């Protein structure tokens, strides 16, 4: 099992998510799976249903100015 990909708040798009496959996960877009949107900001982490890559917000990072 690989370690989660740690993301900075600045890595997330304006909606608070990322797309997988991601260059951050050292993946080649052409040999992976269909692009899928993962909502990371909601819980601070998300797991890709295709490849199982986990993305999480780095400790201390906050998205969207606090709710």
Description:
With 67 residues, the protein is mainly β. The protein has one domain. It has no helices and 5 strands. It has strands at residues 5-7, 17-20, 36-39, 45-47, 54-57. The strands form 2 sheets. The protein has a 3-stranded mixed β-sheet with strand order 1-5-4, with no helix packed on it. Strands 2-3 form a two-stranded antiparallel sheet.
The strand line-up of the biggest sheet is 1-5-4
Helix content: under 10%
Terminal CA distance reads: 33 Å
Overall body shape: globular
> Helical region count?
0
% residues in beta strands: 25-35%
Structural class: mainly beta
Order of helices and strands: EEEEE
Q: Give the beta-strand count.
A: 5
Sketch the major β-sheet: 3 strands, mixed
What number of domains? Answer: 1
Write a concise keyword list for the protein shown above.
67 residues, mainly beta, two-stranded antiparallel ribbon, globular
Describe this structure in a few short sentences:
This protein has 67 residues and is mainly beta. It is built from no helices and 5 strands.
Q: SSE layout and pairings?
A:
Blueprint (H helix, E strand, L loop, with lengths): L4 E3 L9 E4 L15 E4 L5 E3 L6 E4 L10
Parallel strand pairs: 1-5
Antiparallel strand pairs: 2-3, 4-5
